[in-house]
């Protein structure tokens, strides 16, 4: 059996250890995209993924002294913006590094990762 567990990347339960059923249930929901279905039952519906044209049309903004004085960071990587670099500006006015926000917008949701909590 140890070969099976190693091949699957799992570890067998120790003597007296009980399985974590909540973790198993969460993995099932994740694997079968059930979290979206549960949110529909709660009355919460997130916007659909952004279209490519909307994502590409987001304005770029040069980072200025005003941004640096306030001390704004990219909410994804938590690195400070550098003067003169280009950042994507969301409709809510949050600034992101291009390489940080574009995968989120293209693959996940067309809403600000900071505003969605």
Could you write a compact summary of the structure shown?
With 117 residues, the protein is mainly α. It has helices at 2-8, 21-31, 34-41, 52-56, 65-70, 98-107, and strands at residues 60-62, 86-89, 95-97.
Would you mind describing this structure in some detail?
With 117 residues, the chain is mainly alpha-helical. The chain folds into 2 domains: 19-48, no CATH class; 52-107, Zinc/RING finger domain, C3HC4 (zinc finger) (Herpes Virus-1, 2-Layer Sandwich). The protein is 40% helix and 9% strand. The chain has helices at 2-8, 21-31, 34-41, 52-56, 65-70, 98-107; strands spanning 60-62, 86-89, 95-97. The protein has a 3-stranded antiparallel sheet. It holds the Pfam family zf-RING_2. Keywords: Metal-binding, Zinc, Zinc-finger. One of its GO terms (molecular function) is zinc ion binding. InterPro entries: Znf_RING, Znf_RING/FYVE/PHD.
What's the helix and strand layout?
Elements: H1 2-8, H2 21-31, H3 34-41, H4 52-56, E1 60-62, H5 65-70, E2 86-89, E3 95-97, H6 98-107
Antiparallel strand pairs: 1-2, 2-3
The CATH topology annotation of the largest domain reads as Herpes Virus-1
Query: Approximately how much helix is present in the residues?
Result: 40-55%
Number of domains: 2
- Total count of strands: 3
Features of this protein?
single chain, 117 residues, mainly alpha, Herpes Virus-1, 2 domains, three-stranded antiparallel β-sheet, 3 strands, elongated, ubiquitin protein ligase activity, metal-binding, Znf_RING, RING-type domain-containing protein, zinc-finger
């Amino acid at each position: 059996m140890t070969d099976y567990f190693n091949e699957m990347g799992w570890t067998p339960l120790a003597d007296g250890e009980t399985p974590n059923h909540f973790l198993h249930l969460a993995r099932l929901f994740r694997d079968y995209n059930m979290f979206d279905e549960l949110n529909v039952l709660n009355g919460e519906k997130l916007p659909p993924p952004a279209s490519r044209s909307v994502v590409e049309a987001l304005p770029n903004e040069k980072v200025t002294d005003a941004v640096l004085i306030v001390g704004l960071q990219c909410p994804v990587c938590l690195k400070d913006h550098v003067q003169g670099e280009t950042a994507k500006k969301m409709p809510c006015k949050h600034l992101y590094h291009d390489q940080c926000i574009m995968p989120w917008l293209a693959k996940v949701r067309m809403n600000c990762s900071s505003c969605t909590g």
